[in-house]
Design a protein that fits this description.
Blueprint (H helix, E strand, L loop, with lengths): L2 E6 L2 H14 L4 E6 L5 E2 L2 H6 L3 E2 L3 H12 L3 E4 L9 H13 L3 E4 L20 E4 L2 H8 L6 E4 L3 H4 L8 H8 L6 E6 L4 H18 L3 E6 L9 H10 L3 E4 L6 H4 L5 E4 L4 H7 L4 E4 L2 H11 L5 H5 L3 E3 L5 H9 L5 H10 L8 H13 L3
Parallel strand pairs: 1-2, 1-5, 5-6, 6-7, 7-8, 9-10, 9-12, 10-11, 12-13, 13-14
Antiparallel strand pairs: 3-4
Helix pairs in contact: 1-16, 3-4, 8-9, 8-14
Length: 361
């Protein structure tokens, strides 16, 4: 049986890679190196012996290297920084060095443009992307690859939420006429500060008819006391939930509007036809320019979210989207770019079929 290796670090790409691996089990001998956003990664061997292996340690990277050298096909994600993509980069280098088929899963718009993946682009045989626009764009970055629009198994799951609006109301003790503003944090403290402080000021303007609910990113290991302190200083009641209590995916069906600092929860909201505001700070735009070579915000160009650059405009954007007819054009764009899948598992099935075709199976 041929061997397939999947390698990823960040939570979102690992979710998609896990779905691919599950779909191909039985067809391949599958080995997973999926950190799921954690600094401590557990390889399958370590899990069996109940040992923790540090993601950056030579022992873990050696296991990745050994597995890739013995594989027939290597599938990697595209994580969000040079450091966080170390194991992915190692797998890509081995594929390039040995000529093994290399499959890249780009789980967000234009993430494949990141400079830390440049060395491997001409070694990619197959690339999975999120939109037709990305397909055209990515073809210029992967000269030897078949580029396929597959969507994301993680985003696809948003069409099948684990809760309903009524269930979340009951769980949180909310009346249905209360307008919930949902914010999902990022991993980095400075990014969360740049998002939460302006949102808190906007909530102060909006008043008591709105409730601010903050969902902590699984990789947000910062002291949440700072977030509560900002809310207290702004005089704004804030409900803060961590994953162990209730996840953003569970909260999402109750949201009346979602505000992000650029996170992927905006796409999940679009799948559920929820108004989205992306507040893009100067720091975020600078990082995007460094990673993707552009500061143009694709979600606004598509119309699936409204980009706001001035903190003073957040409250007005919320009111506008929740006014009569204010969400209509965004709703149409969300339906256009994120049509409901025909069935659960469609994205993973498509990616698995492409990998099998690549190998002539």
């Amino acid at each position: 049986m041929k061997r397939l290796i999947v390698v990823g670090h960040d939570v979102a790409p690992c979710g998609g890679l896990s779905a691919i691996a599950k779909e191909l089990e039985g067809r391949f001998d599958v080995t997973r190196f999926l950190a799921n956003g954690k600094d401590i990664a557990k390889t399958e061997a370590a899990l069996n012996s109940n040992e923790d292996v540090r993601r950056g340690d030579f022992s873990y990277l050696s296991e990745v290297m050994e597995a890739c050298l013995c594989s027939d096909v290597i599938v990697t994600g595209c994580s969000s920084s040079d450091f966080l993509s170390r194991e992915e980069a190692l797998a890509m280098r081995i594929a390039k060095m040995t000529g093994k088929p290399l499959v890249v899963y780009a789980d967000t718009f234009k993430v494949y443009r990141a400079p830390w993946f440049e060395f491997a682009r001409n070694a990619v045989s197959l690339a999975f992307v999120q939109s037709e626009d990305d397909c055209k764009d990515a073809s210029g970055y992967f000269p030897n690859a078949r580029v396929v629009v597959t969507g994301s198994p993680v985003i696809e799951a948003a069409f099948y939420p684990p809760t309903t609006r009524a269930e979340v109301n009951a769980r949180l003790g909310l009346s249905d006429d209360t307008r919930m503003v949902l914010v999902s944090t990022a991993k980095e403290f400075k990014e969360n500060e740049a998002l939460l402080k302006p949102v808190l000021q906007a909530m102060r303007v909006l008043g008591q008819d709105y409730v601010l609910t903050v969902s902590s990113h699984p990789g947000d290991l910062n002291d949440k006391g700072s977030y509560q302190k900002w809310a207290d200083e702004a005089g704004v009641p804030m409900r803060l939930y961590e994953k162990g209590v209730i996840s953003s995916q569970e909260l999402l069906p109750r949201a009346d509007v979602v505000i992000t600092g650029g996170s992927a929860i905006a796409i999940e909201a679009a799948c559920q036809r929820i108004p989205v505001i992306d507040f893009l700070s100067e720091g975020f735009l600078k990082r995007m320019q460094e990673k993707k070579g552009t500061s143009e915000w694709e979600r606004e160009e598509m119309g699936i979210a409204r980009a706001v650059y001035d903190p003073e405009q957040i409250a007005g954007a919320i009111r506008g989207l929740l006014s009569i007819g204010g969400f209509d054009s965004m709703h149409r764009a969300q339906e256009k770019y994120y049509p409901h899948p025909t069935h659960k598992g469609e994205a993973a099935e498509k990616m698995a079929a492409e990998i099998l075709s690549l190998l002539g199976s």
